[in-house]
Amino acid sequence: MNSFLNLAGIQFDIEWEDKEKNFSKLRNLFNQIKFQDGLVVLPETFSTGFTMKSEKFGEEQNSESESFLIEMAKKTGNLVGGSWIEKNNSGKPFNTFSIARPSGFISNRYRKIHPFSLVGEDKEFTAGNENQIFEWNGFKISMLICYDLRFPEIFRRTSGQTDLYLVIANWPDIRITHWLSLLKARAIENQAYVLGINRIGNAGKKNPLYHSGFSVLYDMNGNEKILERDKEDILFERLSLRTLKEYREFLPFLKDKRRDLF
């Protein structure tokens, strides 16, 4: 086994509630991606920012935001993922993390399980209830969104089955030490790669909330590759499945997990 995965995470300043400006900005950033058959990841609510106007900015499946993900997947020849606001015919919209395939369709949708009640996301969005794992280049990959990071049990559900956790976020600077500490812990305790992709810039017009970025990749040993704060940039890395498997064989901690508890 010698599988590799080329990875890119785009850290950018999301224009507040302006889809077209965000699509335009991202098209320019996508020009920097030269590999194919890899994975490109965008922050949470990449097209609107983390607005609570879920009904106003909600979209049907395969509408503007998912169409943009598909456009970039076809253009670059990679999987492309990010979250957006999905209409819900039976309640409030979902915060949905979608994966677009280069062949031109959405293969996976993960709906955020833990809405962030501190800012009222639980009032404006419906919580999901299912984990999502997909496979690409031999890697088994799990999808999570922002506040999910504070709940290790959702990671534990798929530990041993997941080689790479994707955590996309609008995580504010005021709690950035939590972001870095929790991502690192999730990588070490689950013996997996963890990619955290965050936004930069101010969110909101009234009492704007500052985001500094610090998008980061942690490996299973807690080693990091991290982007500079306050900078629109792309985190590039090439992951090795063999390295991960050999590490798990050398330190087989996951075999002692209590399956009756998780």
Q: How far apart lie the N and C ends?
A: 29 Å
Order of SSEs? EHEHHEEEHEEHEHEEEEEEH
Mean pLDDT metric:
97
Shape: globular
Relative helix content: 10-25%
CATH superfamily: Carbon-nitrogen hydrolase
CATH class call: Alpha Beta
Strand order of the largest sheet: 5-4-3-2-1-14
The secondary-structure class comes to alpha/beta
CATH architecture: 4-Layer Sandwich
Quantity of strands, as a count: 14
Radius of gyration: 17 Å
What count of domains describes the coordinates? Answer: 1
- Catalogue the unreliable spans: none
Number of helices: 7
The main β sheet shows up as: 6 strands, mixed
- Strand portion, in percent? 25-35%
What fold name stands as the CATH topology? Answer: Nitrilase/N-carbamoyl-D-aminoacid amidohydrolase
